[in-house]
Amino acid sequence: MDKVVRKPADAVADVPDGASLAVGGFGLNGIPETLIRALHALGVTGLQVVSNNCGVDDRGLGILLAAGRISRVTGSYVGENKEFARQYLSGELEVELVPQGTLAERLRAGGCGIPAFYTPAGVGTQVADGGLPWRYAADGTVALPSPAKETREYDGRPHVLERGITTDFALVRAWRGDRHGNLVFRRAAANFNPLAAMAGRTTIAEVEELVEPGALDPDQVHLPGVFVQRVVPLTPAQAADKQIEKRTVRA
Asked: Quick check: keyword Transferase in the entry (predicted)?
C-alpha cells in the first residue's frame, strides 16, 4: 500500500514514447510542474496529451511542447502559449478542441468506466457536425478535420454523443497526500486534477505535503487512493515554486 516514490525521475521512468497523458491544472494553477520537468529530462517524445490547456511558453506543458515532444493535444483552451498556436497553425501539432465542461465530463466518465454519454453542449456547431481543424497542412488548408458525431433527441432536445477519455498515464498535483494515495486539493488548484487522475491507468501525483495514513480526515479526501498508483513528495522549494500567468495589483 505504500505508493511513495521519492524521486520524480523514478516515478515517470516507464513512460514510453507515444504515451497518452492526462495532465491536471488550469493555466499555471495546480500543474504538476515537477513531474513535467522529470518527463522532459527523460526525453520521451510523441506524447498525446489531454489537458485543459498547454501551459505557457516556458512553464508546465509548454516545456514539452517547445521541445517538440507532444504530437497531439486534447484540450479546451490555447491560452497564453504562442508556441502552441504556431505549431497548430503550421501543421506540426494535432489539436482536438473540446468544450471545457465536456472535457471535464469525458475525463470523469473514462475514470468511472463510462464509455460515452450524451450532452447538449456543441449541438448545432462543428463540435457535433464535424469539420473542426484537427490538423492543418503547411499551406494553411485543413489536412485533418474532426468527424461528425452521433446525435440523438431526448425530451425534445438534441444531444451529441461524446466518448469518455482514458489515458496510459496521468500526472497531477495535490496539496496533501498520504502513502496510500489519498489526495486533498487546495481551493482552485483542484480544477482538472481529480478528473485527470481518474482517467489515467497509471496515475502519478506530486504532493506538497506527505502525511501518514490516518492523518487525513476521510470526509476531506477529494480523491481516494484507488485512483493513484504513485505518490511523489515535493521538497519545500518545489512546493513553493508557483507562478501566476498574469499578476494584477492595485495602483
From this structure: yes
